[in-house]
Amino acid sequence: MINIDILTCLPELLESPLNHSIIKNAKEKKLVKIEIHDLKDYSNNKHKKVDDYAFGGGGGMVLKIEPIYRCIEHIKKKKEIDQIIYMSPDGEKLNQKKANKLSLYKNIIIICGHYNGIDERIRENIVTSEISIGDYVLTGGELPAAILIDSVVRVIPGVLSNESTALNDSFQDDLLGYPNYTRPAEFKEWKVPKILLSGNKKEIENWRIKKSIENTKNKRPDLLK
Questions:
Q1: pTM of the full predicted structure?
Q2: Hey, how many other C-beta atoms are within 10 angstroms of the C-beta on 66?
Q3: Which residue, 52, 122, 127, 178, could crosslink 212 as a Cys pair with Cβ 3.0–4.6 Å?
Q4: How far is CA 16 from CA 23, 87, 121, 143, 161, in A?
């Protein structure tokens, strides 16, 4: 089982994406445990304030150091943490290899920034890695955290009913996936390739490999380098 603890000032943003589909199944199978920590619960401010203005001026609020630190220390008392991840556009770009590697850890903490980010001292002294989902800025780290968790959970053995599904995903072999079809075999004179209806597993596998390579050449030739 992998344990994922998420620190956020807006836990409501994570409720839906982490309680449906594959992630829901993984939780029910006890292959992943996800705990969301509301930073307001770790604030000493009577109004449960977790942000403040940045020193030096400028627009935007910054998440304060104390609630984040207290929450992490609370989690550390219960388990030995393998990774403390901060979701940030500055971080290492998320890819399939990164997701595969993270799926092997037992205990992960994910910090979701918000407003104008978090106090830099957390990044300098506590965070072990920073991950980005792309070269753009979002309001907070909650949605990127949900994307990261989805990419990690689905490759954990036993999560998918057919484990070969994850192995055939795009990017697992630095290739894009092959095209998929389902019933009906013909629609508006658009036909499913005959090879897929043949029942010849070896020929189907060869066809899929060929199509995967063609897809990659046409859409993402950079991956072949």
A1: 0.90
A2: 15
A3: 178
A4: 11, 19, 31, 11, 22
